[in-house]
Amino acid sequence: MKSILKTALLASTLALGLAACDSKKENADEATANAVRESGEATAAGMDAQAAGADAMGAPTAKVDTMKNKAEATRDNADAKADKMENNADKKDMKPE
């Protein structure tokens, strides 16, 4: 009886381990998505710095706000694109290779 229980426990542990395993293709796609997200963040950070510089030089508030809004939109677009890429990568892993 103990050996059956041990065997069942081992089999379920192995099954969970294999289910959590990502393919090399999925890992590569997720790395690309992460790069897209980081690139968008870096671009937006540069735009935020420009907005801060414009504000420090006395630019109109509306112009500074527009610059900040564009930076936030850049962040949001990069996040959305990266999320879509990650979701597509996850779908690939669900399909048998």
Overview of the molecule:
The chain contains three helices and no strands. It has one domain. About 6% of the residues have low confidence. 88% of the residues lie in helices and 0% in strands.
Envelope shape: rod-shaped
Order of helices and strands: HHH
Strand percentage: under 5%
- Largest beta-sheet characterization: none
Q: What is the terminal-to-terminal distance?
A: 37 Å
Secondary-structure class: mainly alpha
Radius of gyration (CA) equals: 23 Å
Low-confidence stretches: 14-19
Got a strand count?
0
Instruction: Tell me the number of structural domains.
Output: 1
Q: Roughly what is the average pLDDT, rounded to an integer?
A: 83
- Alpha plus pi helix count: 3
Summarize the structure.
This protein is an all-alpha fold. The chain has helices at residues 2-19, 24-56, 61-94.
Annotation keywords:
rod-shaped; single chain; about 100 residues; mainly alpha; about 90% helix
SSE layout:
Layout: H1 2-19, H2 24-56, H3 61-94
